[in-house]
Amino acid sequence: MTTKDKTFDRRLTVGFTGQQDQWLADVARTRSRSGQAMRKADVVRAAVDFYCQHQPDLPGSRKAIAQSIEGKIAALEAKIDYAVTSLNELLDRIEDTGH
């Protein structure tokens, strides 16, 4: 990623403490050494993406989608449990009548 990348059409100015700036520089340097050319802005974008994807109340985030799917699976499990219980009761009644 570079600062001239046309996919970024918005700018935002954010203040950092000296320690935070140093952490960003360290992460960018470490990633660049391991073959991923990164600048501090790239690290900030990656951190914002990660944070947003893990927010359960942010529509479209991975966390929100996962919670939605978990809820649907739980509802489906409850329906399957009810169907199995009903089927077992029906089979017990059929056996009791001798058919």
Note the topology.
Blueprint: H1 18-33, H2 40-53, H3 62-97
Helix pairs in contact: 1-2
Would you mind describing this structure in some detail?
With 99 residues, the chain is mostly helical. Helix content is 67%, strand content 0%. Helix 1 packs across helix 2 (40-53). The chain is rod-shaped and about 80 Å long. It starts with 17 loop residues before the first helix and ends with a helix. The mean pLDDT is 87.
Primary descriptors:
0% strand, 67% helix, mainly alpha, 99 residues, single chain
Quick gist of this model?
The protein is mostly helical.
Structural class: mainly alpha
* Mean pLDDT level: 87
Described by the principal axes of the CA atoms, the overall outline is: rod-shaped
**Gyration radius, rounded:** 26 Å
Which stretches of 5+ consecutive residues score pLDDT under 50?
A: none
Report, as a whole number of angstroms, the end-to-end distance: 73 Å
Q: Helix segment count?
A: 3
Proportion in helices: 55-70%
> Strand fraction band?
under 5%
Number of strands: 0
**Which series of helices and strands comes N to C?**
HHH
Can you summarize the main beta sheet?
none
